[in-house]
Amino acid sequence: MSRMSRPPSARRLAAALALVHLFSGPVAFAQYRPPPLTESQLLVKEAETAQVSASAAVTAGNKKEAEEKNRKALQLFEQALTLDPTSAPAAAGLGATANALGDYARVAAKLPEVSASHPEDVSLTFPLGVALFKLRRFQEAVPLLEKVSENNAPEHLIVNYYLGSYYLHGRRGDVAIAKFQRYLAQRPPKLAVNDFQIHELIGQGHLMRKDVAAARAAFQQAQAGRPESVTAQMGLASVLEAEGRDEEALTLVEGLVDRFPQAKEPKERLGRMFLRSGNVAGAEKQALALVKLEGTPAAHLLLGDVRLAQKQPKEAEAEFRKVLELAPGVVAAQIAVGKALQAQGRNEEAIKYLEAALETDGGNLELWASLGSVNRRAGRFQRAVEVHRRLVELAPQQALGHVLLGADHFATGQWDQAIEDYSNALRVEPNHPGAQQWLAQSLAHRARGRADSNRLDDAVRDLRRAYDLERSAAMARRLGAALLEQRAFAQARPVLEQGVTLEGATWREHWLLGYAHLGEGNAEAALRAFVQAEKRTEEPSELADVSVGAALAEVELGRVDDAVERLSEPGPSKAARQLAEANLPLMLLRRALTRLESADVENARKDVELTEKFNLAKQPELAKLALLTKALVQTEQGRFAEATPLLKRALTPTPAWADANTRFLAEAYVLYRKGQVPFARKALAAASKKPSSWQAKWIASLSNSLHRLEGERAYATGNFKLAEKAFKAALAGAQEDAALQHNLACVNYGKRKFPDAVAVWHKLETSVPMASFNLGIEAQRRNDIPEAVESYRRYLASGGPRAATAREWRDRLMALHGLGGAASSEATEATATETLP
């Protein structure tokens, strides 16, 4: 049957059955067919295939084939990017292959726009950051590489190595170490063999942080991975230097030079070490050997530095220029050329040279720093400030620019600005040693100016801050001297006590410490400090200065003779002579007064005469003290007519060293010595109004002496009533005084109270020799000749002042004793002892 004859319903049935089967079976989806690839995508796919082949060739060690495949891939990726400038895969592929071929400039030119459109695409950021880093465009590269590092992908571990090296170069040890440690955490096991290199870099970072122990551990770990690693052992040498063990470090590097004669680094390091220690000949030997071994830029740079140290700037310039021929753009060499030109007096040429270098590398901080410094050394201070301010703008978070600005202002004596600059440097780098040192120096200079303008409080504040920053003997000396100027002795002493223990302490610190002790009243400690100062110098003028201070301490200790002897020969120091001339008259007068107290009147007179040889016209207060001392000497000599007017001249008007009642005290004493008791008492009463503590004691003593004198005079005239009254008044203030007790007993004897008097004399016989003499008189009165003779013998044994009389009476009694023992009538009254001081 023909098709046309088939019933129409059959076709509909077949369709219906098919539909039923479709709905009753499992759910089915229409197959997705991606749109056809664009021409750019096809090129990318083809390039990726070539890229895979290049990787396989690298694995097989076929470098030539790998390069061919990479060049083919690069060409295809670049064509794809040309067709579609927004294609991220094309750009990423181009970046990867171009970097593999070392064509970093192509990456830097092609990828920035695409990467900016896809900021989170690490496949773009990574090759672009690496290319910029290789081109030394660090300001652009580092932010991109940091973003890749944060992604923490093992395939990008090389980024951490790049960043660690960059931060290490920038002396940011903490950040560098963190990057190297992240590298170690990400690197695959097959790369572990090279870990020693990373540990060496970590060691360098710890050295920058001044963590010597951690640095040593890192270098030792590096050495464990590669025992004969020259760089690891050189790192250990750096650790020894940081520990202050320079000799051991030098020995270690010398050993490396001997064991590895073909290694360049140890020779260069040894040459640098010799150069720092001043061994220029040794440095030259290493530099020439290094140039002969291999004329590297580092070799010629070292030789150039040697020539500079040898004061051969022209030859040094030639070596530095060789460095630039071999490696154009080496900043250290460019800076060195500037130094060599400046050393030849070619300042303008040096400045122009460095300015030209900056035109090709305007972002180099070291060049900016050197240009500013050369301007400063050439005397172009304003230009130096401008350059270094530009340096601060380029690197605001580094101390370098602030420190150099501080040096510019320091050179011109602008202390306020210098202090601000160094403070800014410490704000961004709190432990910057140079900034701390020069801030302290700037503060010290400003303090000197403030002290000169009578702003001593401000000067002390500056010096306190400077001493906090720089704990040195010199800074302690400055602060201590300022505090002494303020007479703040209690504050100066601990500063100077610490100063004498610091490295570099000299005689001056001990000398000032002596004055601090003197100011506190500790003369013994002061003398010890002055003695230490004398031990630390042999310079005659310095010894003279110390001797004056020692003399002042000796006076306080009562060793006036020693002090006068010191001051009598002040030595060649002008300051010492001035101090001696200012102090010797006072010392002589103090010695004269001391001698008067011990009744050495003649030597006191000589001291006063020596004092009068000095020109005291410029020291009116001291001149008045000399007049008073002379008056007292004349008083002791009984020259009252001369002493009285001198006292008036000395104490009218009242000098600064005297109290208001001093004149009355002096007059009372002169009247006492003249024996004018009533007038002396009147003057003493006038002096007794509001006396000081020492005056109260002295007034009591003089009052007691007046009672004694009155009692002795009354007894001598037979006025026993007045004598008794006077002696009892004297005893009221000196109850244990044996002489007064003896004299009162004499009064009782005169009043015929014999038993009372004898009892007292017997008690006092051992302490008052005159008691034995009086007991002899009493025995004669009783006609007890043997007792009288024995009493006179006891008196003679004591060596009393009336020995001649006692001997005569004893002999006479002994002669008369054999004739019947008749009593002698020579002695009928007791003898009172003199109690005048």
From TrEMBL:
Cited InterPro entries: OGT, TPR-like_helical_dom_sf, TPR_2, TPR_rpt
PROSITE patterns, alphabetized: TPR (PS50005)
Signal peptide (UniProt feature, chain positions): 1-30
Keywords of the record: Repeat, Signal, TPR repeat
SUPFAM superfamilies given in the database record: TPR-like
Coiled-coil residue windows: none
TPR repeat start-end pairs: 54-87, 297-330, 365-398, 399-432
Record-given protein name: Tetratricopeptide repeat protein
